[in-house]
User: What shape does this take?
Amino acid sequence: GKMCHPDNICEMPPEFVYLKFDGKRFRQNGKKRRFPGNQSDHVITHTLIVPQRASKVTFDLSGSKGKRCMRVEVYGKPVEEE
Assistant: This one.
């Protein structure tokens, strides 16, 4: 099904969607890292790899034409522990 509120009109997805992350810390190669707060990804043709410890993702689909909705799949990549 469509992942949008019934009251919202689904438009064609924009070419680029800004993905906002919660900035959680995660471990990478034994070092504590903070996941980037903002990251832009070409979600139409690319898959955004999100560290498992920072997999909480919200989508900012606002634009000049108002609210947008689109189906976006985000896959979590396990973080190796040392």
